[in-house]
Amino acid sequence: MIADIDLALVDWSRAQFALTAIYHWFFVPLTLGLSFMIAIMETIYVQTGKEEWKRITKFWMKLFGVNFAIGVSTGIILEFEFGTNWSNYSWFVGDIFGAPLAIEGILAFFLESTFIAVMFFGWKKVSKKFHLTSTWLVAFGSNLSALWILVANSWMQYPVGMQFNPETARSEMLNFWEVLLSPVAVNKFLHTITSSYVVAALFIICVSSWYLLKKRELMLAKKSIILASVFGLLSALFVAFTGDGSAYMVAQKQPAKLAAMEGLYQGKEGAGLIVFGALKSGANKNQEDNFHFKMEVPKMLSLLGYRKTDAYVPGIKDLTDGNVERNIMSAGEKMEKGRLAISSLSSFKKFKKSKEEIKADSALQVFRANSQYMGYGYLNDPDSIIPNVPITFYSFHIMVGLGALFILLFMVTLYLSIKDKLDGKKFLLKLLMLFLPLGFIASESGWIVAEVGRQPWAIQDLLPVAVATTHIDATAVMTTFILFAVLFTVLLIAEIKIMLNQIKIGPKGGENV
Amino acid sequence: MFKRIKDISRNIFHLYYDGFRSMTVGKKLWAIIFIKLFIMFIVLKLFFFPDFLKTRFENDEQRSDYVMEQLTNQKIK
What we know:
- The complex is a heterodimer of chains A (about 525) and B (about 80).
- Chain A is mainly alpha-helical and about 525 residues long.
- Chain A is about 70% helix and about 5% strand.
- Chain A has helices at about 5-50, 50-70, 75-85, 85-120, 130-155, 175-180, 185-215, 220-255, 255-260, 300-305, 315-320, 330-355, 355-370, 390-420, 425-450, 465-470, 475-505; strands at about 5, 160-165, 170-175, 270, 275-280, 290-295, 310-315, 455-460, 465.
- The relative contact order of chain A is 0.13.
- Chain B has about 80 residues and is an all-alpha fold.
- Chain B has one domain (about 1-70).
- Helix content of chain B is about 80%, strand content about 5%.
- Chain B has 4 helices and 1 strand, in the order H-H-H-H-E.
- The longest helix of chain B has 24 residues, at about 25-50.
- Chain B is elongated and about 65 Å long.
- Chain B starts with a helix and ends with a strand.
- The interface between A and B is large, with 65 and 43 residues.
């Protein structure tokens, strides 16, 4: 008997996971980025011996400490959710996620927990060089722990280095290095951590601008802005570079996501990249013009996605209905193959139990031949392979637009701070403070593109989110959704309050955290 | 050798002891960390987030059978 899936439960489970991940991501970028900038500040202090750099380092370290303390372990809630709300998924991926997450736990514990104590408590207890080494290790430790979770996420977008074991219903790792070094994982890691550096640089510029507005801590503020501008500019340029790599990988591995990112309903050769535009409310694959207005760079999407200006970029219609001329299989055909994979999996299990080995082997062969389309077998509508186009499209363009703006911003702040022309420019300083929320918006938008854009898949092509959920009561998930919303909001308010208080006190508030 | 280990241990102890004693905003942060961990691990994990497969089934074979059933007998509406 085929059981229908309760979509209310699926939606609540997704909403809860999204809420937790979005809140968690308010804390992470500052930890990743500030840790490196603090290490650079301390390096300057150790190299030059100038006490002012020690004072600057300690001040930003204190703010790093506030963010780290409030944000620490908020990500663990995601693992709770895996076990309760996503048990089918957790079992299905178990062996793939086990190794990366175990490494993350060990690294986070030894590098961050051990050396963070030296970083905060060790100023008068250990040598300058040992202290500096500890600060760098905290920075590397934080970023390395991000590596493992991003590798796990990348595997869900591009499942390589594994094979599904039909006897245990689990994926097993065949090649650890293929999982770790998959091009999707490498791009995602570099893109995500450097975008976090941009957010952290904006944080330093925002706080320093406030000091300049208040005519306080002028030396600290000016030097911090110069350092943050250089760090932010290099990071933002690298984000653009890795963004190009990420878009290329999306074009190759997740064409439906690319089509949604660009609102490309019908494929074309020499497709242009939309700089900005507004989708019509009734946009669909059967109409030619789906935009109220748009401005695009001709042929750029083909170039970015396929490295050729005249390359054909498949649109939503090609992916759902298929395009024989372009050798694109329809979603309907994939659904047929997926159903064959699921039914042969079921037969394999049945024959194994009745010890009919020859029939089991035969079913296994059919399963292996069609297993790459397994996820499609659960779908009942070819159009369901397309993610929410407006959300993906606008999130992508907000992210890219703000990313370009940040490059310009860092150039301006670097020039003005080197020329010592930021003093007294009240309007500009107030404007600079507004860029911190924009940094968070860009960063969260990036995750929305990545995660909404890959729907309906929990694991690309293999497991839809609806099948990944646990059959529990939707009201239970709704209750914990509200609990999390309250808990995280309280934590965020606490962080902002303590952070603002520490900024008001400034570096003269004592050297202890 | 033994004296050296003793000295290192004493230094590590004092690093933490003096560090915690001289904390300012850190005390408030630790209080938040403990309250948060209590809510997460004692309240949420115990009462709201049981591991579905671990609590419902006794061994991996049963878990595997259950998930296989889920994978082969579901359809999205």
